[in-house]
Write a structure and sequence with these properties.
Modified residues (N6-(pyridoxal phosphate)lysine): 169
Largest sheet: 10 strands, mixed
Distance between the termini: 18 Å
Number of strands: 19
CATH architecture of the largest domain: Alpha-Beta Barrel
Protein name: Branched-chain amino acid aminotransferase
Number of helices: 6
Shape: globular
Helix content: 10-25%
GO biological process, one term: branched-chain amino acid metabolic process
Keywords: Aminotransferase, Pyridoxal phosphate, Transferase
Order of helices and strands: EEEHEEEHHEEEHEEEEHEEEEHEE
Cofactor: pyridoxal 5'-phosphate
Length: 343
């Protein structure tokens, strides 16, 4: 559907990355004994490019994603991709597929999927000699839509172990969830929520996105204070959307709490959202814990709550270039591609 993808390889012997190369083909040539295919030595990212009303294209927070990929790579013994090289590869992928960036009026975006993996043949359980960075793109709207969705806690399966790899964006953390997400969907739950695997008493994250709760407290004089509550845990990835919304919330004079969130707090939230690059902000209608017989309802309406709507409007207006980017989060796509090779 798109024009092609970007590839760059790293040689351990030479200690450097090749110039990004544009390839008009969605397929890869990878050794069958690569550490990616055999041992899961692989990490990935997900970010978006948006077309502004003036026709410019901008990528949202690529440096954050580059740093997060470096963290994930370290977890699985992959050499880090320099931030400038990551951004250059992502920029090139968007430039060569610029006509596939949806128009401003559509509200959609170009989803960008960088993938980094051990690519040379290597049977031993040790780091290989070569690694490959690929950047794919695909036109994309929100993953779950914007209507409130029911969620269920996953009780038969723990996604991440204490002192494990839950904080890294690696495929091995997500593939095992597919089975349980499919079961949950058949039972009427499009969203699945993970509790910590050690105690089952702390909120970790949704399978496809981060968790954000909203509390409304009464101040002196009767004024209401909005409180955003975001889980802080070594078992979950550092969410760019959560990080962005916490900063936006502070700018709106919301109180922000980034901390351990107890399961027992689910009854105290006025709104709950699933937040992520693919999901954006998804309002949660309810959360069910089947073994405990718990059922927490956050809305019976067909639309998101007021805080979710406000945060969604603030975030998307920034991503789409409708408000000043005072935090310099957006990277304007450059058409000049110095050093990029076209196959």
């Amino acid at each position: 559907m798109v024009n092609g993808h970007i590839e760059s390889t790293y040689s351990v012997e030479e200690g450097k990355w090749t110039a990004p190369k544009f390839i008009e083909d969605p397929y890869l040539r990878v050794h069958g004994l690569s550490t990616a295919l055999n041992y899961g030595q692989q990490v990935y990212e997900g970010l978006k490019a948006y077309r502004t009303q003036s026709g410019k294209i901008q990528i949202f927070r690529p440096a954050f994603h580059a740093a997060r990929m470096q963290h994930s790579a370290d977890v699985v013994s992959i050499p880090p991709v320099p931030i400038d090289h990551f951004i250059a590869a992502v920029n090139a992928a968007v430039v060569y597929n610029a006509e596939w960036v949806p128009p401003y009026e559509s509200g959609a975006a170009l989803y960008i999927r960088p993938v980094l993996f051990g690519s040379s043949g290597h049977l031993a359980l040790t780091p290989p000699a070569e690694y490959t960075l690929c950047v794919y793109v695909q036109p994309f709207s929100s993953y779950h839509g914007t209507a409130p969705l029911p969620a269920v806690t996953l009780e038969e399966f723990d996604r991440a172990a204490p002192k494990g790899t839950g904080h890294a964006k690696i495929g091995g953390n997500y593939a095992p969830v597919m089975k349980w997400s499919k079961h949950a969907m058949k039972a009427g739950f499009p969203m699945t929520l993970h509790l910590d695997s050690k105690t089952g008493e702390d909120i970790d994250e949704f399978s496809t996105s981060g968790f954000m709760g909203v509390k409304i407290t009464q101040q002196e004089g009767g004024a209401e204070q909005v409180v955003l509550v975001v889980p802080k845990s070594d078992n979950i990835i550092n969410s760019v959307t959560s990080d962005s919304l916490m900063a936006i919330g502070k700018g709106l004079d919301y109180q922000v709490e980034h901390r351990t969130v107890k399961y027992a707090e689910l009854s105290t939230f006025s709104e709950v959202m699933a937040v992520g690059t693919a999901a954006c902000l998804v309002p949660i209608r309810s959360i069910t814990h089947q073994l405990r017989g718990d059922y927490f309802v956050y809305t019976t309406e067909s639309a998101a709550g007021p805080v979710c709507q406000k945060l969604y409007a603030e975030l998307t207006s920034l991503q789409r270039g409708d408000r000043e980017d005072s935090l310099e989060w957006c990277h304007e796509v450059k058409q000049v591609l110095d050093g990029v090779v076209q196959e």
